[in-house]
Amino acid sequence: MAQKDNQGNWLDSKGRPVPEEYIRPEDKRRDKLVEGIFKRVSKLSAKLESEKTEIVDAIEKYLKELAKDNKVREGWKGNILLYNFSQNLCIERRIDETVSFDERLQMVKTTIDKWINNKLKDTDPTLSKVIAQAFSVDKQGRINTAMLLKLKRIDIQDAEWKKAMQLLDDSIFVKSSKMALRFRSKDLSVPEGGWVEVSLNFNDIQVQPKEEKDGE
Fold it and tell me: Is residue 120 within 8 Å of 132, Cβ to Cβ?
């Protein structure tokens, strides 16, 4: 039910008390509907959280036991695919990390600028443009992380450049880490059957209202 004060009055959106006898029947029906659905949704959310915790723990336990059985010290930080014996069921565990850079990034830029002036100059305008784009920021003042990390892939055998790349490595830190789980299955009786994802997204599940089903 809607929030009420000590006298049993219903409280509106501004916290003002309204005696129940002045509440319209349709407002009561809508309030009952919304409150009832939210109770079910809250239970679903808590159930999903509990199930996900148990699933994650089960996967972690298996991976630890696998490493122990093979006498390997493994942190299992990468993405992992787990299949059943028939290979028609697949669990994918992904670890998506968001990286950022500390104050040493400014020293990286200073070192690279010095390298460009001393070594590159006007001999390779394309590389100069790539480097400039890597240190550009968007309208919100955010650095282009992907472009910066691409600089590490450029194979330049120069002490000053390598110094800059080492500084870039040292400046990187993990800002956030998020685990994602995907579940897929396929019908082995269907030739060349494709994988179908098991949706746990409430809004991705397609349903029809009961009235439409009954009218078919």
Answer: no
Residue of 155, 170, 179 lying closest to 78 (CA atoms): 179
Nearest-angstrom CA–CA distance, 107 and 121: 20
Rounded distance between C-alpha atoms, residue 83 and residue 120, angstroms: 51
Report the mean per-residue pLDDT for the chain: 86
Q: Which two tokens stand for residue 180?
A: 């994602």
Residues linked to residue 197 through DSSP beta bridges, in sequence order: 184
Per-residue pLDDT reduced to its tens digit, 18-73: 999 999 999 999 999 999 999 999 999 999 999 999 999 999 999 999 999 998 88
Q: Which two tokens stand for residue 193?
A: 């059957």
pTM for the full predicted model: 0.64
- Select from 154, 105, 108 the least CA-distant residue to 127: 154
Stretch (H or E) spanning 178:
strand 172-185
1/10 Cα distance (integer angstroms) = 9
Q: Which amino acid is at 157?
A: Q
